[in-house]
Amino acid sequence: MTTTRTIDAYWRAANYLSVGQIYLLDNPLLTEPLRPEHIKPRLLGHWGTTPGLTFVFAHLNRIIGERGQNMIYIAGPGHGGPAAVAHAWLEGSYSERYPEVSQDVEGMRRLFRQFSFPGGVPSHVAPETPGSIHEGGELGYSLAHAYGAAFDNPDLVVACVVGDGEAETGPLATSWHSNKLLDPYRDGVVLPILHLNGYKIANPTVLARIPEAELLKLMEGYGYRPHVVGPSHEEMAATLDTVFDEIAAYKEGRAGRLPMIVLRTPKGWTGPREVDGLPVEGTWRAHQVPLSGVRDNPEHLAMLEAWMRSYRPEELFDADGRPVPAVLRAVPEGPLRMSASPHANGGELLAPLRLPDFREYAVQVKTPAAESSEPTRVLGAFLRDVIAANPHTFRLMGPDETASNRLQAVFETTTRAWNAGIEPTDEHLAAGGRVMEVLSEHLCQGWLEGYLLTGRHGLFNCYEAFVHIIDAMFNQHAKWLEASKRIPWRRPVASLNYLLSSHVWRQDHNGFSHQDPGFLDVVLNKKASVVRVYLPPDA
Amino acid sequence: MTTTRTIDAYWRAANYLSVGQIYLLDNPLLTEPLRPEHIKPRLLGHWGTTPGLTFVFAHLNRIIGERGQNMIYIAGPGHGGPAAVAHAWLEGSYSERYPEVSQDVEGMRRLFRQFSFPGGVPSHVAPETPGSIHEGGELGYSLAHAYGAAFDNPDLVVACVVGDGEAETGPLATSWHSNKLLDPYRDGVVLPILHLNGYKIANPTVLARIPEAELLKLMEGYGYRPHVVGPSHEEMAATLDTVFDEIAAYKEGRAGRLPMIVLRTPKGWTGPREVDGLPVEGTWRAHQVPLSGVRDNPEHLAMLEAWMRSYRPEELFDADGRPVPAVLRAVPEGPLRMSASPHANGGELLAPLRLPDFREYAVQVKTPAAESSEPTRVLGAFLRDVIAANPHTFRLMGPDETASNRLQAVFETTTRAWNAGIEPTDEHLAAGGRVMEVLSEHLCQGWLEGYLLTGRHGLFNCYEAFVHIIDAMFNQHAKWLEASKRIPWRRPVASLNYLLSSHVWRQDHNGFSHQDPGFLDVVLNKKASVVRVYLPPDA
Ligand SMILES: Cc1ncc(C[n+]2csc(CCOP(=O)(O)OP(=O)(O)O)c2C)c(N)n1
Ligand SMILES: Cc1ncc(C[n+]2csc(CCOP(=O)(O)OP(=O)(O)O)c2C)c(N)n1
Fold it and tell me: Which ranges carry the Xylulose 5-phosphate/Fructose 6-phosphate phosphoketolase N-terminal domain (chains A, B) (predicted)?
């Protein structure tokens, strides 16, 4: 059994490694007193979110170990890059991917130095980070990605830390409702952990400043069983035990609602309480780098040293810089390590899509220009057969336009996914359906991204007029793909396919009420190695 | 006193006029039996949402009349264009704006014929529609627009119908939280009316298929007092009385939470029950045009005639086609008519922004290339003085980047708007602040659009990397501006100003973790009469 002592040791180690990444060029084990030349010339990174992220990692590891639970981790506040890197390094997967960053003092020095440094690693969670499918950067998509990863992975739990700032974004606010399209048996489970550290950049967050009773109603209204946890190992451990029992009950059909956790921690927890006479820990001032003058200000330098020593590194790492067994006791084995899960390197799991011969769907033309046929109706029949041939690895997403896009042949073989009330007049609605329809282009895109990044296939059908809604998401995904191509261990994932319909230049009905056709412009400014555009011959 | 009889008469008249717009070319008063040649050759429009929209209009008019309440109406399901046009025609404002569409039989014929017809009016709510500030088309922004309109309009109530489909979008899902930035005294009130007609295009909606108790928790979690109303005049009237008493109590500081209404109606209410053996009223089949074969299918033609006659037009319009007094009894006078409110033609209320002389903020350069200064810090001082000079008509929006964009001088004269918990360590946070910060670019953009369209001024400051998030919103707003320029009675509104910072080409820190700079591409494909881009001399 892992005790909270072990968890605490792991947590302290991860925090130590995170602070080291933000500040240190050298002297990684603090074997000598900190001197200005050990400090990076330009301090970058986000400390505030980090201790919460590491806290959750540490506790989930115990669950994985005890229950053999298949799990991945999505860090909504992906600006907490140091936390994810620290975790991967402690689990050994960092050194497996990057042998030069070995699990010893030399590797630790490299780990610290490379962070947010010219030629080094990004300050945000990125494709470079083992165990990640979720880019840090533009916030709002973590929970949609989490659900996308959970679909058709019945044994998987996707732990998803949602920042309370991130929770203010529109895409995140609607993502909670993804549970209405989740199939309890065929899909996995998403465990949202709302990280209520109270602040975004310079402001408090809305969800941290409404009465707790209101917050709990909100979560219940979204269809979850909320559990509030304070900044305490004991509370977190006990709650996770309950939560995973509830998940098991849900999977066995003994519970109708899945749990979620509201985790209250002080922002920048365990960091400096006060700097230059101003409160830092537990305020917005902890968001980025709490001590900014470390190289020039001896007082700041001393505070940094005291802060890092407060984790008692000598108890956590041996003289060679290797994490001691007490720290690693809760670390799972092999692919159960969240930083080494094949689900987070979806290309490893990717099986080619089984495609029927497209020639068989050709429209017979007896006399030229005598008959007409609807191209998307023909495509619908093809997609129907794609779905039938790939019953667990292909999904069709759309904001309720699948029928009006004339793809309805798909309903001959499948339904729309639905896990809420059904009435006698409904058609093609059932749990487990391969068609995902919700009036949110953000959810369609986010689910599909999560689904693809975990090694599956899909198509998003959308009116061209409204696809601009996901311009920014598309950009972020394209960036992920581009960066991944340069990372040898990232296996290629399936393409993100769009079918744009109801084009702006053939719009009798909605006409100018709809948007401009510029999505192609947004797409075409990417490299051909990342995107391809196919237009019909008469476009 | 207006009775529910009067309300019902108005409602029937509005429904009759809506159906007429969708179907009829001629014979507007049904003075002769309907014949195929009275029917439009191509049937377009959205019936399903219409009876709910007209129901709400009819009931709100009573409140306006009884309480002298200043109110505007935002139709989230703006595809219900016929409802808004019918309302404006009944209130007389349509004929004031478009004298050729007079309030008589000839005008009614024109009204019907022009709808969604070549050279006619759009099928969606648009700038052409009197009383509207909210484009029908891309869904999701109604509630953000409503809050934008309410800010700094202390006597205004903005009634906002939110489609239950629309409610699934991300921007709408987070818009509910706008109440946390509303000032009870200096701002007006938004009354959200969630129109639970159960369906979007071909699917049920999520909010209609979760248990009602869960829906109510969701609304309470968003910080509202929900009231559920069924499809009944009596229920709606009684609830509106309660709701406006609650609003009065809130304005007097006697209530902490504002009300909202959940209105359950059958989709396509009062339309055909069944068509070709399939249920229509109360199902998704009512979404667009329930009877599609009217010109060719005598049975459909007869059903349409029976449907239209079910409103008893002979009781509603006199022989000249003028609405009879019983229909108009509840229609308010002059600018209290929602279709004639100056707030919905904001240019009428627009006062020029008082700007200090920008030369006074010039940075003194003693020796060229010897000193450096931060341009946005200088701009911050300018904006501080703009805010001070325009205390009720200028707001600064941003996703919590105002300080990191170096505009913090504004906090010398104002605060961030906040109407939730405040802690001792908080800074520059108070109700009534002119700076609106929330981690949602959608809300920043939506609030600002609503604020501008009701005749005020503002600036949105945003990292360039993330402004793609509102590409589609920007497009829709640009479209509104472009269409408005061709409508003589639409007075010009103030420009939508962006300050883009943290440019992608000067990004040491977040660097490639952030997005592409293509927002300028999206903007520049609009006409110069609609957009202008200013770049710093060193760009
Ligand atoms: C869409 C978007 N807008 C703005 C930002 C800039 N930004 C970076 S971090 C941050 C605050 C995040 O707050 P939260 O999600 O609560 O994370 P934490 O407090 O744990 O750092 C903001 C606004 C962003 N990354 N993405
Ligand atoms: C962002 C966006 N995606 C898709 C559409 C296409 N669309 C038009 S109407 C509609 C359904 C709207 O449902 P709801 O808001 O409930 O309105 P109602 O049922 O009252 O018509 C959809 C999906 C749209 N207009 N905007």
Answer: 5-348
How many angstroms is it from A401 CA to the middle of ligand 2?
Answer: 10
Q: Which of A287, A65, A60 is nearest to A164 (CA)?
A: A287
Separation CA B202–CA B204 (nearest Å): 7
CA dist A485 and A479 (Å) reads: 10
Whole-prediction pTM: 0.97
The answer for B 231-260 residues in CB contact with A (under 8 A) is none
- Residue A504 reports pLDDT greater than 70: no
Nearest chain A residue (CA) to B44: A509
Residue nearest to atom 16 of ligand 2 (CA): B165
Structural contact between residues A177 and A143, judged by C-beta atoms closer than 8 angstroms:
no
pLDDT at residue B514 is higher than 60: no
- Ligand 1 pocket member A49 (CB < 6 A): yes
Atom of ligand 2 nearest to the CA of B163: 15
State both tokens at B246.
Answer: 């609650």
Q: With bands split at pLDDT 50, 70 and 90, how would you rate the model's confidence at B539?
A: low
A225 sits in which H/E element = strand A224-229
**CA of B60 relative to ligand 2 center, distance in Å:** 24
- Considering chain B, what percentage of its residues have pLDDT values greater than 90? 87
Check A170 against B168: CB less than 8 A apart: no
Give tens-digit pLDDT for A49-87.
999 999 999 999 999 999 999 999 999 999 999 999 999
Q: Which one-letter DSSP state was computed for residue A304? A: H
- What residue type is B455 in one-letter code? G
Cβ-Cβ contacts under 8 Å for B304 (sequence gap 6 or more):
B19, B23, B34, B39, B291, B294
Q: How far is the CA of A262 from the centre of ligand 1 (A)?
A: 18
- Crossing angle, helix A4-23 and helix A233-251, to 10 degrees? 110
Q: What is the pLDDT of residue A510?
A: 43
Asked whether residue B534 carries a pLDDT value surpassing 80, the answer given is no
Tell me the nearest-neighbour CA distance from A318 into chain B, angstroms. 33
Q: Which of B174, B204, B514 sits opposite A137 (nearest CB)?
A: B514
Please name the residues in contact with B286: beta carbons below 8 A apart, sequence gap of 6 or more: B47, B48, B199, B266, B267, B268, B271, B280
- Centre of ligand 2 to C-alpha B166, Å, is 6
What number of helices (H) and strands (E) belong to chain A? Answer: 16, 13
Best probe of the B interface among A513, A514, A523, by most B CBs < 10 A, is A513
ipTM of the prediction:
0.96
CB-nearest to A438 from B168, B174, B437 is: B168
B chain contacts of residue A219, beta-carbon cutoff 8 Å: 221
Decide if A40 contacts A117 (C-beta within 8 A).
yes
Q: Does A18 touch chain B (CB under 8 A)?
A: no
**Domains of chain A, each with CATH number or no CATH:** 4-342 (3.40.50.970), 352-524 (3.40.50.970)
Helix (H, G, I), strand (E, B) or coil at A288: coil
The one-letter amino acid at A476: Q
Which chain B residue has the Cα nearest residue A216? B221
Does the pLDDT value for residue A506 go beyond 60?
no
Q: Could you report the per-residue pLDDT of B491-504, keeping only the tens digit for each?
A: 999 999 999 987 65
Identify which of B214, B403, B513 has the shortest CB distance to residue A123: B513
Question: Nearest ligand, CA of residue A75?
Answer: 1
Say whether pLDDT at A435 is over 90: yes
Cβ-Cβ contacts under 8 Å for B308 (sequence gap 6 or more):
B16, B19, B20, B30, B34
Alpha helices in B132-182 (DSSP H): 142-150, 170-175
Ligand 2 pocket test: which of B200, B209, B262, B269 has the largest number of ligand atoms within 8 Å of its C-beta?
B200
Confidence tier at B507 by pLDDT (50, 70, 90)? very low
Under a CB-based contact definition with an 8 Å cutoff, are residues A338 and A131 in contact?
yes
* Confidence (pLDDT) at B508: 40
